[in-house]
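[recover] target loaded
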């Protein structure tokens, strides 16, 4: 189904269509639809646009990627459905690795996602043959490529769960998360979390990275406080809801 561009919720409906197509094609897990719904609810509260705190978080995320020796983007089914071209563009801009990593892993799903990423322009996609494990994780998400996530000093994990974020941090990696829910364990555990919708966040990170030298990146990272950034994301929602409540109370003409 094509969603008419004139529809007021065009982008949101387009995303749902992409995910439903992904489930039909067998590379998005049905559970991914539920995760997306949770994200959508938070996006409604945020205002369905990149907030000022998210812009600052995207700059810090860009700094971590620019500063890294060996950064890898971890891709799951939802990310492959929603923004394969943005992942490819980020890979071109930053020269980072791209690895498929799935909670509901099967060789068939990995292969379909790898093909989809390659069709969008990603190169050397890892994850089909994971030889290493992330210590402390029991699920198939622990399986990683030795020369990919296992060796990376910085991992960008859009739409991650809290356990894996924590396990990657425990390995000493800088973990950059993208997650619309400022209350999630992922956002609380990540080294840097961008509280924004993934299709907006990845281009924002890429644009911020364009402007950063390595020296500047180090300065940005020195000045970044992840708890303050999370508080700013919560304040953004609180202030927005306060304004909306005032509007609702004010007498209509
Ligand atoms: P945690 O373990 O971190 O507490 P969780 O149990 O909510 O999180 P999941 O069920 O894996 O973890 O959900 C994935 C997260 O991804 C959710 O917090 C949701 O807000 C977020 N999310 C879903 N879709 C998007 C999207 N398109 N852009 C950004 N974030 C999203």
């Amino acid at each position: 189904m094509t969603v008419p561009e004139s529809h007021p919720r065009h982008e949101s409906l387009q995303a749902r269509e992409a995910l439903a197509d992904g489930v039909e094609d067998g590379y998005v897990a049905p559970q991914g639809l539920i995760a997306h719904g949770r994200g959508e609810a938070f996006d409604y509260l945020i205002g369905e646009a990149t907030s000022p705190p998210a812009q600052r978080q995207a700059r810090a995320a860009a700094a971590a990627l620019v500063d890294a020796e060996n950064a890898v983007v971890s891709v799951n089914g939802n990310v492959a459905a929603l923004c394969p071209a943005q992942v490819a563009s980020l890979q071109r801009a930053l020269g980072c690795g791209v690895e498929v990593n799935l909670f509901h892993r099967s060789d068939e799903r990995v292969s379909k996602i790898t093909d989809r990423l390659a069709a969008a322009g990603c190169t050397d996609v890892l994850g089909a043959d994971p030889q290493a494990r992330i210590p402390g994780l029991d699920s198939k998400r622990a399986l990683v490529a030795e020369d990919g996530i296992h060796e990376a000093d910085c991992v960008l994990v859009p739409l991650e769960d809290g356990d894996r974020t924590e396990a990657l941090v425990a390995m000493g990696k800088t973990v950059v998360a993208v997650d619309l829910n400022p209350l999630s364990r992922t956002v609380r555990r990540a080294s840097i979390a961008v509280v924004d919708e993934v299709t907006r966040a990845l281009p924002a990170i890429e644009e911020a990275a364009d402007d950063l030298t390595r020296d500047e990146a180090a300065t940005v990272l020195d000045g970044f406080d992840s708890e303050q950034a999370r508080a700013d994301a919560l304040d953004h929602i609180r202030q927005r809801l306060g304004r909306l409540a005032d509007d609702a109370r004010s007498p209509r003409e």
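[recover] notes: The chain has a mean pLDDT of 95.
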